[in-house]
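quick q for whoever's on today - can somebody do inverse folding on this one?? i tried earlier but teh output was garbage lol. tokens:
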């Protein structure tokens, strides 16, 4: 902005602010005086209401006393006490409200003793009733005195109320002289301020165009910086990572992936994966890749890839831009698993085929044939007998081994145990021992026959596998922590943006609400004192403030479509349309619109946003109608995946994907020229003036954002003078 424009803008704003400050100050002082007078009116009304409530509660107390005497129900006795307490509270309040009126204080000095005497007579009647004292002269005297006191109370109350009403009329009359002065000051001040602001606006409009270009360049640079930061993170992780677009062309390859591919990323970026690695089409990876893209869900798989001579683990993350693939070399783990399986098969075959490493025990579990055990452990015959074979088992395994052997002897069931045995060279090896009881005709144990198998290699492989699993778990946790941090940063950014939108909308709307409220207050309370010019000025003020407030609310609704949406649930679109039409019933009745619809589907969607989508589209059809009554039809059609289910329109952005619903809203309105069919979904894009058709130009932009949140797209077909059809798609699952 050049110095001359800057000085003009600063000077114009300063002068406008000075004028508005003067207007606000004058208005404030005048309204303060009006407010003070109004407070006196309210004060007087409070005194009148309190006097009325005293009479009401006094009557309620008297009714409760009578009901108690007639029914002997203690509930009425409690009611009497409550009403009495309220009467005294109100007397105290009236005393405080009338502290500035000596006449009212003198009346209260007379009224309070009468009320106290009234309650004394009522309680005396209650005491006589409870004492069963039915002396009639006494009761007649009490009733007579009570009636006399009631008349005196009524007279004093009426005098007090008349006095307050007189004061109220005097105070109300005092405010009428201020109004004409306020209207003149506010109108002149606002007119001068608006003229200055229009001039400043014209200067700023040109500068805004320059700033918009600079802002777009800044956004582009920020996006590049964000991509560079994400690339730095992906280059530091230990897993391989590639990103592909919707045409399966590489858009990013990290350093670890370059090492596995043995190619530079510059040689692969922009190339199709199936052209670079054509042999991949024959692998399961090809099918899973297309399944992830079609179903738009995360997929996991493991597969041996012969060209790399590696086992690879894949995580595929589909998105609207394409698919991101996180993969790593798991050859060591898979080879360990395969080796473990082969070892188990080999040792199972060995147990079946061999006759060595066999042991025999008697019915009591004492060793009978143990030559192979002696050869294995180096124990002597004397050491093995009488349970000495347990000494060759690792001390940590002895207790469990003996417990399992004893349990098998008691239950006559199969025996199985794994333990470490100290072999002849002094080292420990893992063995699996199995035993089968040989039973006689009486189901008594004759002897035990069993084998023991060296499972050291399997145990070591299991330990190696467990170690690799632990390492893998650590990597998964690290990767999960990285992703969680990225998600937290994104959530924090969204929360900050949402908080900014709320604060901005609140701060922008507060001055508008003040202007609207005070202007409407002047119009409502002093309408009879306004001339036609003043009324017209007030209408202009309120209309401008309301338009700005509606614009802010629409912008806030547009920004919240993606941040405050509800979870997707099964929504009946027929019900959603009915709710939208119910919200528009006034506009429908005024325009005499004829609205029909097909049977609409049930979809997984945000119900509130689907209602808003129908409401905005139908409202547009009603608004932009010709002189004849609008005729609107809502239809739906599903693509079921078959060739005959495909449907296209001239302006549809893409062929409609499988398993989507196409829904349209058709009208017979004024239509839209073809060159504007794409621009109408932009924010603030209006094709008509506000005098022709009201609105802020955000409604269709909100529709587009809602449809995109539901994974669909929206477009329009139109013939000027004939009508318009708005199409949008929604996924079926």
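ok took a stab at it. sequence:
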């Amino acid at each position: 902005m050049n110095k001359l424009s800057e000085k003009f803008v600063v000077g114009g704003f300063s002068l406008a602010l000075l004028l508005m400050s003067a207007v606000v100050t004058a208005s404030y002082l005048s309204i303060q005086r009006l407010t003070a007078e109004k407070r006196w009116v309210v004060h007087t009304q409070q005194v009148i209401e309190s006097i009325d409530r005293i009479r009401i509660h006094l009557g309620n107390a008297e009714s409760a006393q009578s009901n108690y005497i007639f029914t002997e129900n203690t509930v009425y006795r409690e009611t009497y006490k409550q009403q009495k307490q309220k009467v005294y509270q109100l007397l105290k309040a009236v005393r405080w409200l009338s502290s500035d009126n000596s006449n009212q204080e003198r009346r209260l000095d007379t009224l309070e003793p009468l009320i106290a005497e009234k309650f004394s007579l009522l309680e005396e009647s209650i005491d006589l009733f409870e004492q069963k004292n039915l002396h009639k002269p006494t009761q007649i005297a009490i009733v007579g005195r009570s009636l006399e006191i009631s008349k005196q109370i009524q007279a004093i109350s009426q005098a007090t109320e008349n006095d307050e009403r007189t004061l109220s009329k005097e105070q109300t009359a005092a405010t009428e002289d201020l109004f004409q002065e306020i209207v003149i000051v506010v109108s002149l001040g606002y007119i001068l301020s608006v003229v200055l602001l229009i001039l400043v606006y014209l200067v700023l409009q040109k500068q805004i165009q320059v700033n918009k270009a600079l802002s777009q360049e800044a956004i582009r640079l920020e996006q590049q910086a964000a991509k560079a930061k994400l690339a730095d993170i992906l280059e530091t992780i230990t897993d391989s990572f590639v990103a592909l677009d919707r045409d399966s062309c590489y858009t990013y390859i990290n350093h670890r992936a370059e090492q596995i591919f043995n190619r530079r990323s510059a040689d692969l970026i922009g190339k199709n994966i199936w052209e670079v690695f054509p042999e991949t089409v024959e692998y399961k990876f090809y099918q899973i890749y297309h399944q992830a893209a079609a179903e738009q869900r995360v997929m996991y798989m493991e597969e041996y890839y012969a060209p790399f001579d590696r086992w690879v683990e894949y995580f595929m993350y589909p998105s609207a831009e394409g698919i991101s693939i996180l993969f790593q070399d798991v050859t060591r783990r898979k080879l360990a698993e395969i080796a473990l399986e082969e070892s188990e098969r080999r040792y199972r075959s060995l147990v079946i085929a061999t006759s060595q490493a066999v042991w025999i025990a008697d019915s009591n579990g004492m060793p009978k044939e143990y030559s192979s055990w002696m050869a294995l452990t180096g124990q002597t015959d004397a050491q093995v007998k009488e349970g000495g074979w347990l000494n060759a088992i690792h001390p940590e395994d002895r207790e469990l081994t003996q417990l399992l052997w004893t349990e098998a002897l008691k239950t006559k069931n199969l025996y199985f145990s794994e333990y470490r045995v100290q072999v002849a060279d002094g080292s420990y090896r893992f063995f699996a021992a199995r035993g089968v009881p040989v039973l006689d005709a009486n189901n008594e144990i004759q002897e035990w026959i069993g084998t023991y198998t060296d499972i050291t290699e399997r145990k070591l492989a299991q330990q190696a596998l467990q170690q690799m699993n632990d390492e893998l778990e650590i990597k998964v946790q690290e990767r999960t922590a990285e992703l969680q941090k990225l998600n937290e940063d994104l959530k924090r950014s969204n929360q900050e943006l949402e908080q900014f939108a709320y604060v901005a909308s609140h701060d922008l709307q507060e001055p508008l609400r003040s202007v609207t409220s005070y202007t409407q207050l002047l119009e409502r309370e002093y309408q009879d004192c306004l001339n036609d010019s003043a009324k017209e000025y007030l209408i202009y003020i309120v209309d401008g403030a309301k338009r700005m407030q509606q614009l802010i609310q629409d912008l806030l609704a547009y920004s919240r479509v993606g941040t405050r949406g509800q979870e997707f649930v099964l929504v009946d679109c027929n019900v959603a349309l009915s709710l939208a039409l119910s919200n528009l019933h006034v506009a429908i009745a005024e325009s005499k619109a004829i609205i029909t619809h097909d049977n609409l589907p049930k979809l997984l969607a945000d119900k509130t946003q689907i209602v808003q989508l129908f409401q905005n589209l139908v409202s547009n059809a009603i608004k932009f109608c010709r002189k004849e009554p609008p005729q609107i039809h809502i239809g739906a059609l599903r693509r079921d995946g078959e060739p005959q289910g495909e449907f296209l329109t001239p302006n549809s952005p893409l062929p409609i994907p499988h398993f989507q619903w196409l829904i349209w809203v058709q009208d017979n309105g004024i239509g839209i020229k073809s060159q504007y069919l794409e621009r109408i979904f932009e924010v603030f894009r209006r094709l008509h003036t506000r005098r022709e058709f009201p609105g802020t130009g955000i409604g269709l932009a909100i529709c587009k954002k809602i449809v995109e949140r539901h994974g669909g797209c929206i477009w329009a077909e139109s013939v000027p003078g004939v009508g318009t059809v708005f199409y949008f798609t929604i996924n079926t699952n």
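fwiw The CA atoms of residues 134 and 611 lie 73 Å apart. also The first helix runs from residue 3 to 71. so keep that in mind when u check it
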